[in-house]
Structure formats: C-alpha cells, structure tokens
Amino acid sequence: FGPGGGFWAAPPDVVRPRGSSVSGSAPHPEGRWGVTCRVTEKEAIQPVLQWSSALPIVLSSVWLASETAVAWRTWRVRRSFTDAAPRDGGSAWVVLAGTAVAGTALVVLSSQGWARVGMSGQGVGLGLMLGGIVLRWAAVLALGRHFSLFVATSPSQSLVTSGPYRVVRHPAYSGVLFTSAGLGLVYGSWLAAAFLAGAAWALFSYRIRVEEAVLVAHFGPTYVAYRARTWRLIPWIF
C-alpha cells in the first residue's frame, strides 16, 4: 500500500528474487527467482473507484449542511425583523414538495444505471455543485437580513442590486439550479441531472412569478427598470 491507501507496484514485467524486499534488491546469489509481480487494471484504479462511489454521499451531506445553515441563519437574523409582511402565496411549500419528489426521482434514476456518466462527468458535477453552493451563499449574504425562505417585504427594505444581483435577479435560485444538476452528475446519471435541473427550473419559474409580482408591487418602477436590465437565473439564457 502506498500513500493515501492506494496500491503500489513495480512495472508489470519486473521480476523480483524470492525473499527480496518490495523496494528492490540484487538477485539472489543462487539465482532462485520468485513470481512475477503484476497488478491488474482493476486493482490499479481501485482507490479512484472508491473515491468515486463515496463522492455522492459526501456532496449530498455538504449540500444538506449548507441548506441547514442557510435556514438557521435566516431564522436567527429575521426573528427580530418584525415589520416583514409574508406574501408567499404557498410557493415555498410547492418548492418543498417538489424537492421531495425530485429527491426520490434521483435515487430511482441513479440506481437503475440509466444514462451513466464516467468519472469526468462526476468531476463536472462536482464543479457545478460547489459553484452553486458558493453562488447561493453569495446571494444570501448580499441580501443580508432581507433574505427569506418565504416571499416577504417590509417598509424598511431596499432593492439590492450589488454582488450577484447586478447580473441576475434570483442568484440564490440559480445556485440551487446548478447544484441540482451537479448532484445528478455526481450520482453518475445524465438522466438524473436533466430531471433535477428541469424540476428546479419548473419550481423556481413558478416561485419567481409570485416573487416578482410582489416586488413590482413593493418597489414599483424601480424594480421594473431593474428587471429590464437583468436576467432571471442564467445570464444570456433566461
């Protein structure tokens, strides 16, 4: 075993004398030879395969921890924010129910072995997940105490157009969209990635309609002008 628990072996055609060390030694003076040391391809990539199979569980746990932290921060910051008027229209519960359905579909699709991706696809998924989590937190921090898991406005609220909000109007949702697609790839299925991304797109499209109607009513022409020069979720696409 080498550093990090991986397998170490000499080139396949190296023959070692019986009784010699792994690091190599001179042939036995009597010329008695041992067996040829060969490592199969499956054995050579075993550490990589172990890492690949553990990646979905690790990243799912990271995302769950991140969303738990977002919810806790929102509750802690907004519990003293008493002038907010909830105007969610039930959209948060629609998103929550859709998330449960999408999670179930992820397990089913990834377990069936349909539309499998290799380790390079998992690498892309890893990048999408980490980028999505970072983007979501950037949006949460940019909104500060006005970030909420439910659609709500307050008289003291100002329109935030800095940070990621300079380009897209709903970067917190963009982060979830990227993370959802990445999760499907990390689980090794293009089909799961497409389903999760499509589900997130549909759920947030509904949520955005509710949210933007509230924001137009609250900010008036200021928000209309802001909406005209920005993108909803993905720059130059939507």
Descriptive account of the structure:
This protein is mainly alpha-helical and 238 residues long. It has helices at residues 41-44, 46-78, 91-111, 119-143, 171-186, 190-219, 221-228, and strands spanning 15-17, 33-36, 85-86, 152-153. The chain has a two-stranded antiparallel ribbon with strand order 1-2. A two-stranded antiparallel sheet has the order 3-4. Helix 3 runs antiparallel to helix 6 (190-219).
Any chance you could write out the topology, listing elements then pairs?
Elements: E1 15-17, E2 33-36, H1 41-44, H2 46-78, E3 85-86, H3 91-111, H4 119-143, E4 152-153, H5 171-186, H6 190-219, H7 221-228
Antiparallel strand pairs: 1-2, 3-4
Helix pairs in contact: 2-4, 3-6, 4-5, 5-6, 6-7
Task: Describe the structure concisely for a colleague.
The protein is mainly α and 238 residues long. It is built from seven helices and four strands, in the order ββααβααβααα.
Any key phrases for this structure?
7 helices; single chain; 238 residues; elongated; mainly alpha; disordered N terminus
Proportion in β-strands: under 5%
Estimated radius of gyration: 26 Å
**What is the SS-derived class?**
mainly alpha
Helical fraction equals 55-70%
With strands numbered from the N-terminus, the spatial order across the biggest sheet is: 1-2
N-end to C-end Cα span: 50 Å
Count of DSSP H/I helices: 7
- Give the rounded overall mean pLDDT: 76
Total number of beta strands: 4
- Biggest sheet architecture: 2 strands, antiparallel
The coarse overall form would be: elongated
